[in-house]
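User: Structure please.
Assistant: Input sequence and predicted structure:
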Amino acid sequence: MHCTVPGRPQSYGVLIIPREVFLAMSTLVVSKSEAVEQLARRGADLAGGSSDRILLALSGPPASGKSTLASAVTDKLTDMGLPAILVPMDGFHLDNQILRQRGILDRKGAPETFDASGFVHAIKRLKSDAEVAFPSFDRSRDIAIAGTIAVERGHKIAVVEGNYLCFNEEPWRDLQSIWDLSAWLDVPHEILEARLTQRWLDHGLSRSDAEQRARRNDIPNADRIIREKGDCDLSLRIADKG
């Protein structure tokens, strides 16, 4: 495994990083496949030493690659014989009608546009209860749908992904003590800007309109998430698509 840490000249060569080194690194630069392998192995180690459900949190700003990585880690854990389930945070979006009433529809995706207390409560149940139902988010219809993710007794690991899992504002900060392992996805700002603009281009907007939409809400929101980043066990930067 080839990995580097920004600001550190040494090379680590080909290795599986010991847990204490893995968690102590400021930012670990790896390929996607290496990140999946490391996170799945750490999740498996934790599951092997506990009778409780293990909660693995993947957090970061929008367009940082959380969903893709979380899905891959969940699949890897399942392939390793550990029943795992993916639990996205997006199902806790407040409905557009509520956002209109509050005058914040144009801020959708910001912390105040989620049912934050409901999410924190659900995560506490995810840790303590054998069975929990979570909502999901239908992007094609821009709505949350209740009870579509069924976490069952046999799910040994839950991989949770979302923008605010390591967010240092109330009530989100209460989550930090619940995670068994938390990872932050570190992405250069210029890459985030390009990805966030591309999202609007993919929705059919012109280049100028896409850039305006990204600058008006998405990029300020990403900056806020980065600025208010709380404690995470590790920080990952995905260096390539491998």
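The domain at 19-188+232-238 is CATH 3.40.50.300 (Rossmann fold).
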